[in-house]
Structure formats: C-alpha cells, structure tokens
NAD(P)-dependent dehydrogenase, short-chain alcohol dehydrogenase family
Amino acid sequence: MPSTTGWTTHDIPDQSGRTAVVTGANSGIGLVTARELARRGARVLLACRSEERGRGAENLVRREVPGADVEFAPLDLADLSSVRRFAESYSPGTLDLLVNNAGVMALPYGSTADGFETQFGINHLGHFALTGLLAGRLLKTPGARVVTVSSGMHALANVDMGDLNSERRYRRWVAYGRSKTANLLFTHELARRLGAAGSDVVAAAAHPGYAATNLQTAGARLEGRRTAERLAELGNRLLAQSAEAGALPTLYAATAPGVRPDTFTGPRLMGWRGAPAPSRRAKWTLNDVAGERLWMASEQLTGVTYDDLRG
C-alpha cells in the first residue's frame, strides 16, 4: 500500500472525465465523498433513497463546489426492484468508481421489501446486487474501482451462514457486525474473481473509524430510546472525528494511486481517527471458502449473478 502519511483531500488526483456513483450521498461520509470527488472534477451520481434529501445534497454540493457535475439518482437498497431500476436507468457508458457507502446501524429488527433482515439486506445484499448489475460497466472501464465501506465493528461477529437473516435470534449489534463482515468478505471474493478474470478493476474496502454521522443515533431514535440517543449525540460531540475526516479512508481507497485489491483502509490512530492507513481486519474476512459461500448465497437471495466473473 502506498504511503498515507498526512494524506488529505488535497492529495486527491484530478478526477476529470471520470464518473462515480456514491450510495447514501445525502449526508455524512457519503456526502463528503461525493463533494470531494466533484471538487476534483468527477461526474458524481448521488444514489439516495430520499428524493428530498438527495436533491438537497445535490444543491448543497453545487453551492459549495461551483460548476460541480452532480445529479441525484433514486436508489433504495432495501428494495431490489429499486436497485434494478437504478442499474437499468444508468446512462453513462462507463463507470470509473462505485462507492458502496450507504448503510444502517444497530436498528431494531425489521425486514427489507424482499424479506431480508434490514441490516444484512441494506448493508450487504443491496450493494452486492448493485455491484453485480453495474459490473459490465465497471469491467469495460480501464482503472475502475469498487470501494465498499465496512466498519471496524465488523470484528463483533462473523457471518452465520446458517442464519444470514438473524431469524433464530436477533441482536442488533451482532447483526451489524455480521453485515460489516459481509462487506469485507464480499470485497475479498470480488477481488479474487476480478483477478482470476484478468481484470484491472480494483475492489477495496474502507472504514471511517468513529465519525460523527447520523448512523449512531438512528436506531435509538426509531425506538424512541431518548437516553440512548442523547448518549450517542454526546459521543459524537466529544469523541468522534468529523464526517470530513471520516471520509478520508474512503476517498483514499477510491482515488490514491497504487491502491491494491482487497485492502482495508481506515484511520491511522487505533482505527479510530486520523489520516488513512492500512486497517486491521478479522482473519475470518480473508477466508476464501467463506467468501465463496457468502457469494453463492447472495446470488441466490438477490437473483443477481456476475456472469462475467464466474468463480
């Protein structure tokens, strides 16, 4: 991995002529990622569930980056029909960068439109399907990258192949950890398949450390747990780094020269805050057998097959 010492947004190479899709670009890490890519000249599609928030983000980026080439595009990762519509309506002939950023954290038990446990369905399966449906564009774009945002909290739990949807027992933080492990196993297997196919597309992963976003408060707010929500807000104010700092590992993985396949980039200081650096990951996220099993299960659950990247 190339040197990351002191790496900031000023080090992002020129992105003119490149097209990027950033999921969950209406707030937090995704918004910063989209804004900085646009600042460097990329055409950026803001793939968001809420049209109101997506349009708001589009207007905000244009105000902060005069001349930015940004556009809201509807995408609900909790609904595979929406994922398919997004892919079908994608008009650029090529795709240089797909940032699988959107996610939910520690929500009460719920199901997506297709019946998947919400965290696994949105954080992993929605992005698995999206990447597969856009794979043809990525494969014909020289130097393309897929960056999937995981979390240091993947270390909470390995995936349970016998209970991917947490039907036997649901524990919100365990389910979150499993979904973030799934992000890393997906990156691992995608990188392996791309290499086997002789493709130069780079699949990498990143995480923001502890960054102040609305992820921390969403679950408590949904359940009306005001004390937990206030504690999360306090932690964001006192302990977390900014969303701008939290986006640096993603931006590094997405744009820095020499990023290798299947790398995991996070903040330098104990994986919590600071400049981008190689991040520790649980050994189970590098297991070839687990990666292939999750891939096959994901294809079966979503109905999306990567025909150009058969195992």
